[in-house]
Q: What sequence folds into this?
């Protein structure tokens, strides 16, 4: 059956206005936020509004034996939404309803296209928050962040997306719809399907409804900026704060390359000569916040850090604007920005930071490093130009070495950005061939024809 037949059947399900087939329109769906990836056009882009429509699209994909690529806001950084040749891109952006906020059970139920920040705005009047907050929080969808198991700036104290997903509705590769989990805190009914689909990157099913846990908003918070003239002092402070039994909500680092770039980009007034800054926020009840802030200040001083404490919301916003500007600022430096998220146990951060500097020098590359230092999740960001083959060869060698180092230090390929296309080739380094085979078996059990987001993780 031809593409025109498929499109005609999709029109029958969704209506003409929910389908794009022109090349100019489809170009927008050939890429996501990931650099250095293949660019291939899908055959068609569809925007279903209901679970039933998603199920019909998936059934048609099965019948025509074409792939389906689920897509939220396409901010992922591992090539997760990039189509192979042809197929259907399924955008969830029109499934954007907050279905319920339940202040008694402390849950919210949403469609997958809801933007994370919109959920937080909706629960704020109840004095609640949904903690996972990737840097892309104002753009990324709930569906994309669940499928990616996103982390974010508050991961150290509050955990990541998988710690908040309680229930899911999922359209399987055969078009059947299942529900797993729900609003109960306890649920050990058989295998944990909620966890299986969380972080599955659209390769096992299409998430059409999500129930998440909410928590009370902290009463007080204090943001601090610690300035270091050597990287070792910053690294020792990260481990020192936590070994002094303070778990900040946020403990972020920016190295000198990142600081300079952010200052030029966002005019936020950071010290451009500093080797590194730590951006720290403690939160909770006021007495605890005051006590924890004192401990943070002491540890910073002991390690040679100069501390500035935000005195009001404007100063607090300045600190976090600086941090959120890190990736966009580095991205302005050159045409291609390659962001990695190799993650190491916190105690190995000093070694990882040193290794990153050596890798940059060895391969003559500019690498800006920033990230969620408190949970060992650094984002070494290589600014380069994919039109320069010599430099790209050095970039690829550097990326290999970054992952080798992370694994050698007892870490992982990905703290939060997922595997997608970008890190597929490294999977065996972490899981071994037998581990990868388990992934392949799960994939073929749930998607035997391989129509769901093929080419990602193991498909
Ligand atoms: C500036 C910037 C900062 C970022 N900061 C962070 C950060 O701090 N922490 C972090 O973890 N990530 C971060 N990211 C990465 C990214 O934003 C997150 O992973 C994000 O949550 C993805 O959401 P999305 O809607 O863009 O998903 P998409 O990119 O559209 O999709 C992500 C994956 O999920 C699949 N998918 C999408 N919707 C569904 C669905 N309904 N069902 C099944 N599969 C689906 C896609 O096929 C793809 O594999 C950042 C990205 C940018 C550009």
A:
């Amino acid at each position: 059956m031809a593409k025109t037949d498929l499109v005609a059947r999709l029109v029958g399900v969704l209506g003409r206005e929910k389908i794009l087939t022109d090349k100019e329109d489809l170009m927008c769906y050939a890429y996501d936020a990931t650099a250095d990836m293949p660019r291939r056009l899908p055959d068609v882009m569809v925007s279903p509004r209901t679970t039933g429509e998603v199920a019909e699209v998936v059934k048609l994909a099965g019948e025509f034996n074409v792939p389906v690529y689920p897509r939220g806001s396409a901010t992922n950084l591992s090539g997760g939404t990039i189509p192979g040749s042809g197929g259907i891109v399924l955008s969830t952006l029109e499934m954007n309803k907050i279905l319920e906020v339940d202040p008694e059970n402390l849950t919210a139920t949403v469609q997958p296209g809801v933007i994370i920040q919109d959920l937080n705005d909706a629960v704020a009047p109840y004095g609640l928050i949904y903690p996972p907050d990737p840097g892309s929080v104002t753009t990324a969808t709930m569906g994309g962040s669940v499928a990616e198991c996103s982390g974010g700036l508050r991961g150290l104290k509050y955990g990541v997306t998988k710690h908040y997903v309680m229930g899911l509705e999922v359209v399987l590769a055969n078009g059947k719809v299942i529900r797993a989990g729900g609003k109960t805190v306890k649920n050990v009914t058989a295998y944990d399907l909620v966890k299986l689909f969380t972080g599955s990157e659209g390769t096992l099913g299409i998430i059409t409804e999500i129930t998440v846990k909410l928590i009370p908003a902290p009463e007080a918070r204090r943001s601090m900026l610690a300035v270091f003239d050597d990287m070792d002092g910053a690294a020792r402070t990260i481990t020192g704060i936590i070994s002094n039994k303070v778990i900040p909500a946020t403990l972020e680092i920016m190295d000198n390359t990142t600081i300079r770039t952010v200052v030029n980009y966002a005019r936020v007034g950071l010290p451009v000569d500093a080797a590194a800054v730590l951006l720290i926020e403690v939160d909770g009840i006021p007495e605890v916040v005051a006590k924890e802030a004192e401990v943070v200040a002491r540890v910073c001083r002991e390690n040679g850090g100069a501390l500035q404490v935000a005195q009001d919301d404007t100063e607090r916003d300045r600190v976090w604007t600086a941090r959120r500007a890190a990736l966009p600022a580095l991205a302005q430096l050159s045409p291609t920005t390659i962001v990695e998220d190799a993650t190491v146990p916190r105690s190995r951060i000093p070694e990882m930071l040193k290794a990153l500097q050596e890798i940059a020098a060895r391969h003559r590359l500019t690498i800006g490093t920033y990230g969620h230092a408190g949970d060992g999740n650094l984002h070494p960001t290589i600014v380069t130009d994919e039109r320069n083959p010599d430099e790209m060869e050095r970039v690829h060698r550097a990326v290999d070495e970054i992952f080798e180092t992370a694994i050698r230090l007892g870490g992982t390929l990905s703290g939060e950005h997922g595997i997608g296309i970008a890190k597929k080739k490294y999977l065996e380094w972490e899981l071994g061939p037998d581990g990868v085979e388990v992934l392949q078996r799960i994939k073929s059990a749930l998607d035997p024809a391989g129509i769901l987001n093929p080419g990602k993780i193991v498909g």
